[in-house]
Specification:
The protein is built from 8 helices and 18 strands. By secondary structure, the chain is of the alpha+beta class. The strands form 6 sheets. Strands 1-2-3-7-4 form a 5-stranded antiparallel beta sheet. A 5-stranded antiparallel beta sheet has the order 9-8-10-16-11.
C-alpha cells in the first residue's frame, strides 16, 4: 500500500506526528553520485513554514541516510532515509476520533483501523508523508537529467486565477529552467500576484482555496509505456492520486477535449528534421498509453485545504448526534504551491521507473 514502482521501488513510512518519517528507495543505478545539496534545495520547496502562503509549522526536513551510498555513490543496495519530526502540536488533534474533520480521512480511517488509528496531524494520511517522496523524487530527477529528461511544473491555477498556458508542442527547456528558479512557479508573474492575493484573502477569512498543477517532461523518447492498464497515463495517474489532496488527473488538453471537435483536438503529424513530431500536442505526449516523443503534459487538480478555522458541521461518533467542529492547529490556506515539487517528484519517479523497464 505504501510502495510505488516496479524496477524503481519507493516505500514510504511514518506518520505526521511520529518520531520520524522516511522512505526506502530500491533500483537506482549503481555508481550514481547524487548531489545532496540539490536534493535539500528541492525538498525545501515543499517544506512547511518557508513562506507566507504555507503553514507556520517549522520542520528542518533534513534527510538522514542509513544505507545505500558508499563514498557518495549508490552501491546497488537500497537507500534507506529518515527525517525526524520536530514541531508537532499533537494536542491540537485531541477529540478528532470522536468528531471527525470534514473532507479528511478521519472517519474512513476510524472505520478501517478502529481505535488504533493515529489521528495526530492526519497520521499516515498527512501531506507530511510527501517529504520523503520529494527526497526520492529529487534523486530520480537527477538520474533523468543524465538521460536528457527535464521535469518541471507550474501552478496552472489557484484561487480561481489561471496562469498563462504555454504551447504544449513548443514548451522548451529554457521555459522550464525559468520556472524552477521562481519561489512561486508561474509563467505569468502578474497571475502569480493575483493568486497570492486570492490565497491571502482566503487566509484572512479563515478559509482555504484549491487549484491545479501542470507538469511537463521534455526529452522522453517515443515508445515508452504499454497499452491498456500499463499505459503511461495509467501509471502516472495511479501514482499522482497517492498525493494527498489530488482530486483529478488529466493529460494534455484534458477534460477540455470533451467540448472539442476531432478536427480541433487531433494533433497532425509533421516531420521535424528527421524526427516525427506533431504540430499541436493536445494529447500531452501520449497516444495509446505510449509516449510520442513530444512534451509530456500532465495536470493534477488540488482540492482546497480541508482544515479551515471556520466552524463546520460534523457528527459526534460517541453520542451518534450531529455536532459542530472548529479545527485548531496550523494549516496552509492553499496547498497548491507546496504541491508543485511533489507532483514533479512523483512524475519523475514514474518516468524513471518506466525508462528502466524499457531499457
Amino acid at each position: 500500500m505504501n510502495t510505488l514502482g516496479n524496477k524503481l521501488k519507493v516505500t514510504v513510512f511514518g506518520q505526521s506526528h511520529a518520531e520520524a518519517i522516511g522512505c526506502v528507495v530500491e533500483g537506482l543505478p549503481a555508481g550514481f553520485a547524487p548531489d545532496m545539496e540539490r536534493t535539500a534545495a528541492f525538498m525545501a520547496r515543499r517544506a512547511p513554514g518557508r513562506n507566507a502562503w504555507s503553514t507556520n509549522r517549522k520542520e528542518g526536513d533534513v534527510p538522514e541516510l542509513l544505507s545505500g551510498l558508499v563514498d557518495g555513490k549508490t552501491c546497488g543496495a537500497p537507500i534507506a532515509m529518515f527525517i525526524r519530526n520536530s514541531d508537532q502540536h499533537s494536542r491540537d488533534y485531541s477529540g478528532l476520533k470522536r468528531t471527525p474533520r470534514p473532507s479528511h480521512a478521519d472517519y474512513t480511517a476510524l472505520v478501517k483501523y478502529g481505535g488504533s488509528y493515529d489521528v495526530r496531524g492526519g497520521g499516515q494520511f498527512s501531506g507530511r508523508l510527501t517529504a520523503p517522496l520529494c527526497f526520492a523524487g529529487a534523486l530520480a530527477l537527477q538520474v533523468l537529467e543524465t538521460r536528457g529528461v527535464t521535469v518541471a511544473a507550474h501552478i496552472s491555477q489557484a484561487g480561481g486565477v489561471y496562469d498563462t498556458a504555454p504551447d504544449f508542442a513548443a514548451v522548451s527547456r529554457e521555459d522550464l529552467s525559468a520556472l524552477l528558479k521562481k519561489p512561486f512557479p508561474v509563467f505569468s508573474d502578474n497571475a502569480g500576484i493575483q493568486m497570492r492575493q486570492a490565497i491571502e484573502a482566503a487566509r484572512m477569512d479563515a478559509d482555504s482555496v484549491g487549484g491545479a498543477v501542470r507538469c511537463f517532461a521534455l526529452g522522453l523518447p517515443a515508445g515508452v509505456g504499454d497499452p491498456m492498464f500499463g499505459g503511461m497515463e495509467n501509471r502516472l495517474a495511479a501514482a499522482l492520486f497517492g498525493i494527498p489532496a489530488v482530486r483529478g488527473v488529466s493529460f494534455g488538453t484534458g477534460f477540455a477535449a470533451a467540448g472539442m471537435r476531432g478536427s480541433q483536438h487531433n494533433d497532425p503529424f509533421v516531420m521535424d528534421g528527421g524526427r516525427v513530431a506533431t504540430r499541436t500536442n493536445h494529447a500531452g505526449g501520449i497516444l495509446g498509453g505510449i509516449t510520442t516523443g513530444m512534451p509530456l503534459v500532465v495536470n493534477a487538480a488540488i482540492k482546497p485545504t480541508a482544515s479551515i478555522a471556520l466552524p463546520q458541521d460534523t457528527v459526534d461518533l460517541e453520542t451518534r448526534t450531529n455536532a459542530a467542529l472548529t479545527v485548531h492547529g496550523r494549516h496552509d490556506p492553499c496547498i497548491v504551491p507546496r504541491a508543485v515539487p511533489v507532483v514533479e517528484a512523483v512524475t519523475a519517479l514514474v518516468l524513471l521507473d518506466m525508462l528502466l523497464e524499457n531499457a
